[in-house]
Design brief:
The complex is a heterodimer of chains A (about 100) and B (about 450). With about 100 residues, chain A is an alpha/beta fold. Chain A contains two helices and four strands, in the order ββαβαβ. In chain A, strands 3-2-4 form a three-stranded parallel sheet, with helices on one face. In chain B, about 35% of the residues lie in helices and about 15% in strands. In chain B, strands 7-6-8-15 form a four-stranded mixed sheet, with helices on one face. Chain B has a four-stranded mixed sheet with strand order 9-14-10-13. A two-stranded parallel sheet of chain B has the order 1-2. The chains are: A alpha/beta (about 100), B alpha/beta (about 450).
C-alpha cells in the first residue's frame, strides 16, 4: 500500500461503563457535627489529621471527631477500600476529611 | 482519593486533602469512578512528607479554612465533559487520512505510545476476530481506573495498532482477562512507583507463534514478544485509561518489557504454569508488576555456591527499601527469579527442585531487624517489623523476639518467589524482578484457542 493511501480508522477506546455519582449536599454548619478523619496512606497524613482535629475542637466546642480506617478489616493509614462507604455510614458521621500523606 | 468518592457516594460530604501536583490525578480518578465534582483542598508545596511536625502544624490553620469552606458549600461545578458524551459506536469511522495523518490524529488524542501504529481499519480488526470464537461485542471486563468496557472488538483494535499478527488474538484476550482480575490491582498501575507489567508465557503456543524464549528474550526484536507487550501498554492507555500526568503518576516509569517466554524445552524444571496449577501443555499467560530488574551472574562450580549467590542477590534486591512494599502493599508479593537454562541445570543436576531453591533462598536471603526497621521508619516514625506483625501486615516470624540483630527474611514465605527459566541456554546469568505487592500481583490465565485454530494460518 502506498504511503499516501487513505486509511479509514476506528477508535481504540472502550465505551464507558460508569454511572455518575451525585455529590453529597454540603453541611449548613459544623457545630454539633461528627467529622471523620481518614488517613489513606503515606507519610505525615496522620500528623496533619491530628493538627486539624486540634484546631477544629478549639473552634467548634460541640463538634465531635473520630478517626476511621479507610475500609473494613484494614488499619488507620492503609490504602482505601470501597467498603469505606459502609464504614462511614455505620459510624454515623456527618462529613469526612480524607488525607493522603506524601 | 478513591476514598473521597466512595464517601460522597454514601451521601456524606467528603473533602480530600492532597499535595500539590496530585490534583489533576485526583480529579481524573474521581471522574473515572463517576464523581465529576470533587471537594479538594491542596496542601501547598513542598510535599508534606518532607516537612516536620511543627511545619505541618503551622500550616494546618490555613488548610482547615479551605476544608471548612469545601464542606459547607456545594461541590464545585464540573468543568468536565459528561461521561459518555463523546463516545461513538465502535465501528464508526473516526478519521480518514494518510498513514502520517492517522498517526498524528491518534497521537493528538493520546491513543498511542508515541511510536507509529498500524491504522486500525475495520478490515484489519475483522482479520483479528477470525482468531477467536467469541463475539466482537462481548465485554471481557470493565477496566479500572477509567472503567471502560474492554470488548473483544476493542482488544482487536489495539492489537492491530500494536502491530500484532492476527494469530496473537487469543493471547491478547487472555492478557486482558488477567489484568482485569481484582488480584492484579490494575487500579494501582498509575502509582508514582512507575511499575510496568511483566508478561510470562508458557505452552506450545510459544513455538507455534514464534515467541523468543532464548537469547535476548527481553530485547525488542522478535515480533511476537514485543508487539504483544506493546498491545498491553496501548490497552492500559485506551481501555483502562492510563495517561501520564493524570491517571499515571509514575515518577520515572518503565518502558514495556517484551514477553518473557519460558525456555520449556531447555529447562530441567516444570514450567511456571504447571506450578500455578495448570495442566502440562496448556497455553498460559502470567502477568505481574515489575518495578526493576537486577543484573547478576553466577560463576561458581557447585550448586550450593550458585544458590548462595542467588540468595545474596535476592537479599540485595528485596532487602533494601523494598521491605516497605512487602509490609504495606497487601499480604503477598510475587517477585520473579529468572534463571538461565544453564544455571537451572546446575541446580537440577545436584538434586535441587524449585521448592528446594525457594527454601534455600528464603532461609539465606535475610537482613538484620535493625535494617528492616530503619526502612519501615521511612514510612512513618516508629513503624517497625513488630508493629507490622501486631497490625497483621507481616507474619509472626518477623517478631519472634525484639532483638535488633535477629535476621529477617525479605519475603513473607518461600512460596512467593516465582521461578522462571529463560534466556540464553549457555550463559550463567539470572535476574530478580521486584514486584509491587497488591499493585500487580501475579495472575495467570489459560489462553483459549478457537475451535478451528489448527486450520488458521499463523
Amino acid at each position: 500500500m502506498a504511503i499516501d493511501s487513505l486509511y479509514e480508522v476506528v477508535r481504540p477506546t472502550g465505551n464507558s461503563g460508569l454511572r455518575e455519582i451525585t455529590p453529597a449536599p454540603p453541611l449548613a454548619k459544623l457545630e454539633g457535627k461528627k467529622i471523620a478523619f481518614i488517613w489513606t496512606i503515606f507519610t505525615n497524613g496522620d500528623v496533619l489529621a491530628d493538627a486539624l482535629s486540634e484546631i477544629l475542637h478549639h473552634r467548634y466546642t460541640s463538634l465531635q471527631t473520630v478517626k476511621l480506617p479507610a475500609g473494613k478489616k484494614i488499619n488507620w493509614g492503609d490504602y482505601a477500600d470501597e467498603s469505606i462507604e459502609d464504614v462511614v455510614r455505620e459510624a454515623g458521621v456527618d462529613a469526612a476529611i480524607v488525607l493522603v500523606g506524601g | 482519593m478513591r476514598a473521597t468518592t466512595w464517601i460522597e457516594k454514601a451521601g456524606i460530604p467528603a473533602v480530600g486533602i492532597i499535595c500539590t501536583g496530585f490534583v489533576l490525578s485526583a480529579q481524573a480518578i474521581a471522574r473515572m469512578l463517576g464523581l465529576l465534582s470533587m471537594r479538594i483542598v491542596e496542601y501547598p508545596p513542598p510535599n508534606i512528607a518532607t516537612q516536620t511536625k511543627e511545619q505541618i502544624k503551622g500550616r494546618a490553620g490555613i488548610v482547615l479554612d479551605h476544608v471548612i469552606q469545601a464542606l459547607t458549600q456545594p461541590a464545585p461545578k464540573p468543568k468536565m465533559v459528561p461521561i459518555g458524551e463523546l463516545e461513538t459506536r465502535p465501528r464508526d469511522i473516526v478519521f480518514k487520512g494518510t498513514l502520517r495523518e492517522v498517526n498524528d490524529f491518534f497521537y493528538d488524542h493520546q491513543w498511542t505510545d508515541g511510536l507509529p501504529i498500524i491504522p486500525p481499519r475495520v478490515e484489519a480488526v475483522e482479520e483479528m476476530l477470525k482468531y477467536t470464537d467469541r463475539s466482537a461485542d462481548e465485554v471481557l471486563a470493565i477496566l479500572q481506573p477509567a472503567r471502560r468496557e474492554a470488548t473483544i472488538w476493542a482488544v482487536a483494535v489495539n492489537g492491530v495498532m500494536a502491530g500484532c499478527s492476527a494469530a496473537y488474538m487469543p493471547v491478547l484476550i487472555a492478557l486482558i482477562e488477567a489484568i482485569a482480575e481484582p488480584r492484579f490491582g490494575l487500579q494501582h498501575a498509575g502509582s508514582t512507583a512507575g511499575w510496568t507489567p511483566l508478561i510470562v508465557l508458557n505452552g506450545p503456543i510459544i513455538k507455534e507463534l514464534n515467541f523468543n524464549s532464548g537469547q535476548g528474550v527481553l530485547r525488542p526484536q522478535r515480533k511476537a514478544n514485543i508487539t504483544v507487550s506493546r498491545f498491553l501498554r496501548l490497552a492500559m492507555m485506551n481501555l483502562a485509561g492510563y495517561q501520564i500526568g493524570t491517571t499515571d503518576l509514575a515518577c520515572f516509569g518503565t518502558n514495556y518489557l517484551p514477553v518473557l517466554a519460558e525456555a520449556e524445552e531447555e529447562s530441567p524444571y516444570e514450567p511456571l504454569s504447571v506450578e500455578r496449577g495448570f495442566a502440562k501443555g496448556s497455553n498460559v499467560i502470567t502477568v505481574l508488576s515489575c518495578l526493576s530488574m537486577s543484573y547478576h551472574f553466577t560463576s561458581q562450580e557447585t550448586a550450593e555456591e550458585h544458590l548462595q549467590i542467588l540468595a545474596n542477590e535476592v537479599e540485595r534486591e528485596l532487602g533494601g527499601q523494598y521491605v516497605q512494599v512487602m509490609t504495606i502493599f497487601g499480604p503477598d508479593i510475587t517477585p520473579v527469579l529468572c534463571l538461565s537454562p544453564l544455571v537451572a541445570s546446575v541446580l537440577a543436576n545436584a538434586g535441587y527442585s524449585k521448592k528446594d531453591i525457594r527454601k534455600y533462598i528464603f532461609e539465606h536471603a535475610r537482613i538484620p531487624a535493625s535494617e528492616f526497621d530503619k526502612e519501615l521508619a521511612g514510612l512513618w516514625v516508629g513503624f517497625t517489623a513488630c508493629k507490622a506483625v501486631e497490625q497483621g501486615k507481616l507474619p509472626k516470624l518477623f517478631c519472634e523476639t525484639e532483638d535488633p540483630q535477629r535476621m529477617l527474611p525479605v519475603m513473607h514465605s518461600p512460596d512467593e518467589l516465582l521461578i522462571v527459566v529463560s534466556g540464553s541456554a549457555t550463559r550463567n546469568r539470572n535476574f530478580v524482578s521486584k514486584q509491587t505487592g497488591d499493585q500487580g500481583l501475579a495472575v495467570s490465565k489459560e489462553i483459549r484457542l478457537p475451535a478451528n485454530w489448527a486450520y488458521l494460518p499463523k
